[in-house]
Specification:
Helix content: 25-40%
Number of domains: 2
Shape: elongated
Strand content: 25-35%
Structural class: alpha+beta
Number of helices: 10
Distance between the termini: 44 Å
Largest sheet: 10 strands, antiparallel
Strand order of the largest sheet: 9-10-11-14-6-15-20-19-18-17
């Protein structure tokens, strides 16, 4: 007689996180049940048809546990597996690890599940198995098991794909700015020279690129010149900057670390002006809290990592190295959208620091899946 089957639906990126849960559940159930986990190296033997074996595992399953993490919450695959299982009358149970299952989209958000918050919550797995199969396995998951899982999650949670949350990042450099030291005066920058200097540097480093007189494309980074220089206007004896002439940077989220490293090198060329912020634009499936009151309510609970900027309402700092805010961005020709603005000293902040900030904002539900 075939053993009752339980299906562990998960992201392959979470293999090392979920595998200890599977092994402990197998120990507790003493091999009476078959737990199918596609990435464990056993459920799908080498050389077998991967899709066919998953279909077979789904067909045999009586329970599906869907492990939801920052890696899998936007995965179409777990929604497909769960939808297929549910349509076959298989009991589907969402389990949140590091994310709240309240974030899930339909149909998973309609199903009763739980978040792993302790050893006791891990034992919900055994409780559900006992109820489903009329067994009496002891609930032997411990707080130590939870600690080990939490330790792994703490080490890996910031290595999510930043492209799952943001479509791209960008910023502009204008050729004219108000002089903060002398009101009514203008500071000018030769951004045409910056553009040509960037091209020469990229060429000298042997970095592959394509370009024309107004655009450079290289390593996930586009640098483009827009508009033309216009002399500042004078009003009541004061000059007003004309900011039509801009140098625009657009950064891909694929291999963000490499693109950021190049941007860091380019910042050493245009030393007259700092590259000191990035606007991060959300993909359609992610957004942020839009109320400063809501954001501040969460920030106030985590003063160990977040601080208020006392002279800038709506802006906060993370570990004192990065300032951030959420603001509307757009023009008359482009619909206004909320973006994450991160201010930083590019000479000091590494890409991992930016990713850590984004991970913390996601963990605390300031950034979330819609």
């Amino acid at each position: 007689m075939d053993k009752p089957t339980i299906f562990f639906s998960h992201s392959s990126k979470d293999r090392d996180l979920i595998l200890p849960i599977k092994k402990k559940a197998e120990d507790i159930t003493a091999g009476v049940l078959d737990i199918f986990m596609s990435s464990d190296g056993q459920s799908i033997p080498f050389g077998h048809n991967w899709v066919h074996k998953i279909e077979e595992g789904l067909s045999n399953a009586q329970i599906m546990f869907v492990f939801v993490t920052s890696n899998s919450i936007n995965s179409a695959w777990i929604y497909f597996e769960a939808g297929y299982a549910y349509s076959k009358g298989i009991e589907v149970v969402p389990i949140g690890i590091g994310v709240n299952i309240d974030q899930l989209k339909a149909p998973l958000n309609l199903l009763q599940g739980f978040n792993i918050m302790s050893g006791d919550s891990l034992n919900n797995i055994i409780s559900i198995i006992n109820k489903k199969f009329n067994t009496q396995f002891k609930e032997q998951f411990s707080d130590e098991d939870f600690r080990l899982i939490s330790a792994f999650f703490d080490e890996s949670r910031y290595y999510f794909e930043i492209g799952d949350i943001f479509a791209y990042a960008d910023f502009d450099i204008c050729s004219q700015y108000p002089d903060p030291e002398n009101k009514g005066q203008i500071i000018k920058y030769d951004i045409d020279k910056f553009f040509n200097d960037y091209k020469q540097y990229i060429d000298s480093q042997g970095i592959p690129y394509s370009s024309n007189n107004r655009m450079i494309l290289t390593s996930g980074l586009t640098i483009s010149l827009t508009g033309y220089e216009i002399e500042p206007k004078e009003f009541n004896g004061r000059l007003t900057p004309e900011q039509n002439h801009r140098l625009k940077f657009k950064i891909s989220m694929y291999n963000f670390e490499k693109s950021y490293a190049l941007l860091k090198e380019l910042s050493k060329i245009s030393i007259d002006i700092d590259i000191e912020y990035l606007f991060f634009h959300f993909v359609d499936s992610y957004t942020c809290l839009k109320s400063n009151e809501d954001i501040s309510a969460i920030i106030s609970e985590h003063n160990d990592v977040f601080l208020y900027l006392q002279d800038n309402v709506g802006s906060f700092s993370f570990m004192n190295d990065q300032k951030f805010s959420f603001c509307k961005n757009g023009t008359q020709s482009r619909q206004l959208e909320y973006v994450l603005k991160i201010n930083f000293d590019i000479s000091k902040v590494e890409p991992k620091n930016i990713i850590e900030l984004i991970g913390k904002l996601t963990e605390k539900q300031i950034i979330f899946c819609v």
